[in-house]
């Protein structure tokens, strides 16, 4: 019976995770009109599911980290009632935020729940240095790194745009044309040709043209790929954290746990993502294709790197940090929404800790 209850709470946590997190990878695509809501959520669902499956091969260190080992003793992490408290504390916190349309971190909620249940289980023996170094520092610094990277890349892109005479924005009718011009003609009949590039609003700008690239089409394709990578990275990073709650007590084999968690993450996104989607897409800042491409690229890069290093960063924190970096440059950030999001982040850990502590006292 205890193992069935643990299974049910992990399913609830997986569903809540999908509802709050799945859309974040494609939020910029929906925001700038590249995809409508239905296409965006299905893109997120498919790519997140793919990341969840691949996490079986690439993110084994996160399974060890989020079983709670190191934070509390191995004997405690092997107790189903401890894991039930952790999963239910995190799930209740994430779902409450989802219903209010607030994008919070499942990773942050899990850390809070691990802390609350751990305090009830071992009291002052909770390993606080592990809590700070292994869990909290990556969560604190990852959005700051995301902001700095986005600002640097977008400013660099503006300089390149200016050099290409695109006026800081890859316009809808802009083309980069590649061709050749005759530089020298020798008496023997040999001609010396030189490759040239030209930025224009016409598709046939050069007399000896090799190719013409529509800048907007390339940027839209890159934006779609970067958004899909964020969703893939999220599945890669989050799935092992949830599976860890099952694997530690051998409630399921790792492979079956991955499939179960991946399936309910997908369902949560499909059925309950709309409120968080509106916040991420429409309320933080307006965004262009180019800015969305950079924001998603930075998010995917940081989350995938963290997954390989076993670092528990939050896709939410990194993604919101990237969007805030865009807003800093465009001066279009809604700081009222940012304040609400930051407040929700501040209360996530104590809320999850309190719920997990109460659940542990009830079931232990």
3D architecture notes:
By secondary structure, the chain is mainly alpha-helical. The protein folds into 2 domains: 2-134 and 230-283 and 334-363, no CATH class; 175-215, no CATH class. It has 14 helices and 3 strands. The protein has helices spanning 2-21, 27-31, 37-58, 60-65, 74-77, 80-99, 106-122, 128-163, 215-247, 254-272, 274-283, 289-309, 315-330, 335-363; strands spanning 175-185, 191-200, 209-214. It has a 3-stranded antiparallel β-sheet with strand order 2-1-3. A hairpin with a 5-residue loop joins strand 1 and strand 2. Helix 9 runs parallel beside helix 12. The radius of gyration is 24 Å and the shape is elongated. Residues 167-171 have low confidence and may be disordered.
What keyword list fits this structure?
mainly alpha, 364 residues, elongated, 3-stranded antiparallel β-sheet, 3 strands, 71% helix, single chain, 14 helices, 2 domains
């Amino acid at each position: 019976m205890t193992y069935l209850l643990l299974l049910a709470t992990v399913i609830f946590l997986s569903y809540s995770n999908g509802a709050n997190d799945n859309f974040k990878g494609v939020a910029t695509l929906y925001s700038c009109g590249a995809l409508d809501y239905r296409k965006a959520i299905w893109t997120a669902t498919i790519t997140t599911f793919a990341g969840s499956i691949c996490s079986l091969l690439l993110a084994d260190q996160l399974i060890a980290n989020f079983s709670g080992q190191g934070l509390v003793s191995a004997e405690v992490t092997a107790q189903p009632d401890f894991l039930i408290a952790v999963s239910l504390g995190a799930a209740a916190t994430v779902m409450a935020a989802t219903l209010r349309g607030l994008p919070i971190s499942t990773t942050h909620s899990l850390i809070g729940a691990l802390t609350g249940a751990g305090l009830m289980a071992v009291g002052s023996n909770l390993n606080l240095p592990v809590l700070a170094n292994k869990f909290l520092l990556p969560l604190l610094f990852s959005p700051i790194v995301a902001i700095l990277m986005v600002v640097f890349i977008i400013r660099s892109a503006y300089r390149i745009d200016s050099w290409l005479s695109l006026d800081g924005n890859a316009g809808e009718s802009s083309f980069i044309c590649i061709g050749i011009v005759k530089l020298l003609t020798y008496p023997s009949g040999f001609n010396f040709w030189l490759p040239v590039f030209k930025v224009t609003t016409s598709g046939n700008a050069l007399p000896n043209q090799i190719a013409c690239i529509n800048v907007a089409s390339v940027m839209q394709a890159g934006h779609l790929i970067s958004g899909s990578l964020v969703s893939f990275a999220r599945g890669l990073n989050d799935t092992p954290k949830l599976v860890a709650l099952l694997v530690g007590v051998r409630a399921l084999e790792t492979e079956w746990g991955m499939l179960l968690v991946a399936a309910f993450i997908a369902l949560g996104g499909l059925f309950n993502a709309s409120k968080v989607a509106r916040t991420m897409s429409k309320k933080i800042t307006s965004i262009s294709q180019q800015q969305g491409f950079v924001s998603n690229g930075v998010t995917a890069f940081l989350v995938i790197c963290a997954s390989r290093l076993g670092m528990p960063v939050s896709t939410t924190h990194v993604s919101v940090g990237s969007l805030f970096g865009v807003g800093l440059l465009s001066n279009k950030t809604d700081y009222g929404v940012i304040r609400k999001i930051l407040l929700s982040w501040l209360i996530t850990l104590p809320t999850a800790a309190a719920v997990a502590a109460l659940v542990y006292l009830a079931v232990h």
